[in-house]
Amino acid sequence: MKKEFLVYIAILVVALMFPVLVDDVYIMHTGVLAFIYILLATGLNLLTGYTGQLSLAHASFFGVGAYTSAILTVTYGWGFWPAIIASAVLAGVCGIFLGFPALKLKGPYLVMSTIGFVHITHELFLNWVSVTRGPMGITGIDFPPGFNLGEFAVDFSNPHHYFYLVLFWVVIVFIFVYSLINSKMGRGLKAIRENDIAAECLGINLKSYKLFAFSIGALFAGIAGSLYVHYIGYVSPDSFTLAESINILVMVILGGMGTLLGPIFGAVGITFLLENMRFLAEYRLIIYGIILMLIMFFAPGGLMGYVLKFTAGRNNEKLKMVQEDE
Amino acid sequence: MSILKLKDLTIKFGGLIAVNAVSLHVYEKQIYSIIGPNGSGKTTIFNLITGIYTPTSGEVMIQDEVTSGHRPDYISKKGVSRTFQNIRLFKNLSVLENVLIGSHNHIKTKFIDVLLQTPRKKTIERQSVERARYLLSIFDLEQFADQRAANLPYGPQRKLEIVRALASAPKLLLLDEPAAGMNPNETEDLMQLIRRVRNEFDVTVLLVEHDMGLVMQISEYITVLDHGMKIAQGTAAEVQNNPAVIEAYLGKESA
Ligand SMILES: Nc1ncnc2c1ncn2[C@@H]1O[C@H](COP(=O)(O)OP(=O)(O)OP(=O)(O)O)[C@@H](O)[C@H]1O
Ligand SMILES: [Mg+2]
Fold first, then answer.
1. Same-domain status, B125 and B154
2. Does residue B113 sit at the A interface (CB-CB below 8 Å)?
3. Using one digit for the tens of pLDDT, what is the confidence trace for B10-24?
4. What is the ipTM of this complex?
5. B115/A201 touch (CB, cutoff 8 Å), yes or no
6. Does B101 share its domain with B44?
7. How many Å apart are CA A34 and CA A247, to the nearest integer?
8. Quick count: other Cβ atoms within 10 Å of Cβ A84?
9. pLDDT tens digit sequence for A253-291
10. Which CATH code of 1.10.8, 1.10.1070, 2.60.40, 1.10.3470 fits the domain covering A3-282?
11. Which of B169, B196, B228 is the last residue of a domain?
């Protein structure tokens, strides 16, 4: 078996043991949020890290997923499972809406259009009162139904149990992205990131590949949105702003763009960092900012970039996963 | 049989007519060169053939199908592949991955094969890696296979672009100044390689090159451009003695 797989399995074992070893409900709560962010960061990484399309609209799809689940379960009485699937699909479709105008745009102009998009969806959540209940938001969203595992009763109102539900989706998404990146399709996405004209001249259809990346990235965010509202119990427009998009992007960059594990470390690292610094009160964001700047200064390829450089030792010319500028 | 025909091909950028009513025929397995002073429209013709630009008028025909107006990925599937004057490698990917992306159209693994790690996937992957390594070995690049493309010296980068283009198993290979920046030994080497590739893979080679030594030795037919217009065509000997060609080049030099 490849060394790579041993690392993945080790990480999975740590994740599986986490609720067993941790009693503290607050830490567990942070763990649940961190793993929801893994889904968000992994989706954005597919689009930005692997395909090279810098987007600040990711919170939009998080929101679409969240509202879809909230509305379907509260207003229409759907169950959790059909609702999460619908959230994923609808967010994926919205990803295509963003993707179409983005096809012709690059660099700063692409970023501008994604900023526009996140403002539009935020306004929609806020002002489409008949559907979203506007600034009041939607409350009373139920936890997913529990079940019995032999003697053991699974109860998703318990964060220790909810964590495994999120982990289940993280594993599915990870396997999906792993397979994608190691298929010819993944190579196509990376080729677009590296040089779109050369990629197109080698037979890669830019339009369908980019739309695919926009849509799959958004689909993962839709899943995250659904998991988020069923955990928190309510949804309001303020969770899905440009600031939230930036937060997700920071996780991707800090963890290591264009690497499989980067978004995982980024999401877990940042979520715990922010939560654990609450005691710093008004100094929190200053210290956070300084930490971000230091990390980017010492590890410009993100945490994974740093790890890879380390493990590759002197032969770091072989680093193909790390993205560097010339 | 002709593999490429340009018919009155014209493109205007604002007021500038970069390519002006150029017609030519390239026959299968020919080594055909387009030469001309800087800015005469050579690279623009490559961009028109590969679909990066759409002509203002006239057309490009590949094996008797009009391809102008189609996107580059479609034209690639018709068997056209190219290199770029300003190198466009996938810099942060390994040399091997660059070549594998070249064979994108021919790798038939599906996503599901990778998801389930099917034997089919492993076989296809092994075969495409083998083929990529073979192509690299022809160009003496095998030792770089696992390195980042950006870490290669300049000469090998140019060669890697050719290997990547060849990996798509083209019928028509467009080389835009492949010898630029190479020393005389490397250029000589490259000339042998171009011949070998033409013979071994049955490709037609359309070459743009400023190194006249290389062009005159290797080309079976030459078209000369100046200011976007065709001013001469013929064999190396014919072109070299053509007064219009001499004037275009000398006029350029004394300016
Ligand atoms: N996209 C474009 N927009 C505007 N002008 C262009 C464009 N592409 C090419 N040109 C112009 O067309 C003319 C022909 O350029 P081209 O690059 O084809 O020349 P070339 O023969 O390849 O020259 P060189 O030998 O220097 O590579 C030049 O005047 C160039 O500035
Ligand atoms: Mg040129």
1. yes
2. yes
3. 999 998 999 999 999
4. 0.92
5. no
6. no
7. 12
8. 26
9. 999 999 999 999 999 999 998 888 877 778 888 888 888
10. 1.10.3470
11. B169
